[in-house]
Amino acid sequence: ISRRTFLQGSAALGGAFAFGAGMAARAGAAPDPQVLTAQLTQAQIASDGVTPKVMTYGLGDATTNGMPPVLRMRMGEPYAARLINKLDEPTTVHWHGLRIPNAMDGVPEMTQPYVYPGDPFDYIFTPPDAGTFWYHPHCNTLTQMGSGLTGVIVVENPDDPVFDAEIVLNLRDWRLGKGGVFIDPFKPRDAARGGTYGTVRTANWQQEPSYDAPAGGLVRVRIAATDVTRIYTVGLEGAEAMVVALDANPVDKPFPLDRYDVGPGQRIDLVVRMPDNEGATVKLGNLRGSHPWTIANFRATGQSLKRDIRDVAALPANPIAEADLSVATRVPIDLTATAEHKATPSICGSLGYTFWAINKVPWPGDTPDPIAPIEEMKLGKSYVLQIANRTPHAHPIHLHGMSFRILNSNKRTFLPPPTDTILLLPDEQAEIALVADNLGDWVFHCHIIEHQKTGMTGYFKVV
Ligand code: C2O
Ligand code: CU
Fold first, then answer.
1. Single pTM value for the model
2. Which of 62, 399, 430, 458 could bridge to 409 as Cys pair (CB 3.0-4.6 Å)?
3. ipTM
4. Which amino acid residue places its CA nearest to atom 3 of ligand 1?
């Protein structure tokens, strides 16, 4: 069988994969890989032109209207994907939030080699947790993610309650100028502050899309903030909704959505109770700042299903270990701005500056220069990271490979369930706890990609 026939065969199987994977897992065999092609395309994003040189993922070669597909996996069952790089630069895939083996984590130089143009790379792992996650490259990230390479992952738990419908939203911006062409991905003066914003705001690559949902029904809305810069404050108009999960992890007790901050890399799962009247529209908005705007609309269709929002119960929790605080090792972590200096060039792109540092060390995270880990952790031991944001900016700080619990903070009263990303507020000091239960080198970085790429990156080594 030639490589070509093999690829075509796998691509054709793409749609049926969920079943195939399940059966293979029960039989104890490795599943057939889903072929995930990183590729160049063009897409209608702005209203005044088709954007060329968009980067996307396809299943085989086929994209979902240009957009990276929503990847569906099942908790506890093996998943395999063969990345084929059809870009003209190296790339990798990082599975954001999935606690999987280090060699599958997608960080070039640290956990795997670069995947050069034309080359494949096989990922295989078993997601231990259910929920809403996402995937993106970890090489030249400002350009690659900014150009389109951000997709949503849904890990299903067979024990999840069934809802009347599900809507998956991938929220992100695009830096496009006249005619829809990409403009400079960042401005250095903004990189040294809150980050550079896009010019066109989308959900699922569309400006203010509308989705039909059953009237009077309970709809699970999975929202992933995959933008390189924007922090959203989501709120709903025209319906009630319960927050059921944050960053994939179920909240102990679902609570009504008022407004909630979702930083780059974070996710929020809502259950929306659609209005009873056919045609009634619910607006999901971004309430941040002084000019709120609509992210997406949900339109009630059909006869009311007359569901009761009080029936929304907690989702089954994910199996995340509780740290033992009585013996935990404390690790101070200072996030600071740093004197501006030139960064070393990297195969994975360099923005040319360092503006930020973790414990005084600025590192962009994907260069081969050997920096020391922030801390060497012992497998199975508990740690409390005492994080101090000594800057006047918010930083969504993400840890690969392990989830942590926020213990306390000088800036918040509500403590979310365990997470992989904490949106640190300006001048916030927070303690987070984790069990170092995954071997390897795990990067820890700000998910405002300009901050990550200009120094706000470090890593932990679990031995
Ligand atoms: Cu979402 Cu280091 O990544
Ligand atoms: Cu940051």
1. 0.92
2. 430
3. 0.98
4. 96
